Amino acid sequence: MSDADKEAQEGVVERGKHNYSAEDRYVRPDDPTLLERLEWFKDQKLGLMIHWGPYSQLGVVESWALSDADADWSRVGYDWFDDPEEFKRQYFNLNTTFNPIRFQPEVWADLAADSGFRYLIFTTKHHDGFCMWDTKQTDYKITGPDCPFRTHKYADVCKHLFDAFRSRGLAIACYFSKADWHTPYYWAPGMKRSKPSWRGPSYDPAEYPELWEKFVRFTHAQIMELMSEYGRIDILWLDAGWVRPETGQDIRLREVVEKARQLQPWLICADRTVGGPYENYVTPEQTIPERPMSIPWESCITMGTSFSFAYEDTYKSLRELVCILTEVVAKGGNLALNVGPQPDGRLPRGAVRCMKELGDWLKSYGEAIYGTRPCAPYFKSNCAFTSKDDLIYCIYLYPKEPSTVPDSVVIPYAGPVSAVDLVSGQEGLEFERTDGGLRVALPESDLAASDLVAHVFRLRKAI
Hints:
By secondary structure, this protein is an alpha/beta fold.
C-alpha cells in the first residue's frame, strides 16, 4: 500500500479526533422499524459515554500511542522510555495489572439515571484490542487468564454494566472498534512495513486475502457475541472509520449488521465517518456543527479534557455543560458526554460533580430538552430554541456569571405568541413585541441570582 493511500485513510481522523460525515452522504433508512428507532434516538438528547480499559492505569490517551504514525501528538509527556517498541510491550502488558476492584456498576447506573442520562455508550473494545467482555475469540480480555480482575464478581464488565443500566431504564450502545491492534490478523507479526506501525493493518489485504478473511471472521464473531449474549442492545457504535471498503479494508459490515438485526431488529448502527446505509447517525467529536443538521447526529464531548482517565484533569463547569447541551439540542443533535473512569473502578470526583450538577439543572428545565425538536432561529446569540407540540422553548444563556440580572430580556423570536412562562417558575410573564423580538419582563425574585446559568422560557403559540 502506498504512502498516499495511507494518508488518504488517515484523513478520517486527525490527532485522534474523527471528522464527521456531511449531510449529503447520509442515506435515510427505508425500514419502518429503524425510522421509528431513530425518532426515539432523537428524543433522548443525553447519553453517557465511557472510555475505560487498562490504559487508565497510566492516565494516557487510549490506544493511540501504539501507532507510530500518531506519535507526534499521542506520546506527548511520555518520559519514562526511549524505545517505542518497548513502550508497546509495556502498554500491551497493562492487562496483567488491571484490577479495578472498586468498580460498582449499580452506583454508576444510579448516578447516570438520577443525573438525566438516557443511554450508555460503553467501550467494549478500543483500537488496542483489549475486550471488556468475556469474549471467546481472544484471551486479551478483562476475564483473561493474565488479568487479575478475572476472579471478581463483576469480572465481565459489559454484562454487569449493561444489566445495571438497563434496569434503571437506560438504553445500551456498544462502542466497538473495527480496528484491532492486538490481534495477529490485523497487526500481523513479521510483516514488512513501510512504517513501524500506523493505524491501519500491517499488510495489504489484497495481497493477503486469507489473513484478512481471518480478521473479518474474528470481527464478526466478536460483534455477534455482544449482539447475542449481552441482552438488548439499542445501538452498535462503530469506531475506526478508516476500516472501510474504499480503503481496501472491507469487513463486510452489511453481512454482520443484517445478522445482528435478525436478533435485534431495532438495532441502530453508527458506522462513524463512513456514510452510507450503516451510518444511521453521524458523530461529531469534541465539536458542535456550525449549523443545524436535518439528519440524526450526536456530538461526543468530554466532561474533562480527555476521553480516557487523566490524572489531574480539569472538568467543565455547569455553565459550560449547559451551554454545550443546549446548543447541541437546538441544532438538532444529541450530546454524548464522556467520562473516563479511574483505574480503581470509581468515577473521578470531577466527573461525578459534572453529572450531578447537570442532573439537578435538568430536573428543573428538562422539559425544554427531552423529546424536543429544533426550531428556528435555532441557536442565535445566547439563545437556544427547541419545540414540542405547540410550544416553543427559549433557553436564554448567560455564558458568564452576570454581575446583575436585567429586569427584562429580548428573545429573538418572530413567530406569534399568546403567552410566555418561565419553566419551573412564574407563568404569564408580561411581554411586548419589538423590532428585535419579544421583550419579556423578569419577575423580581429572579433578579438577585448572581450564579444564574440560564432563564428557560416557554412560549405558547398564538392560535
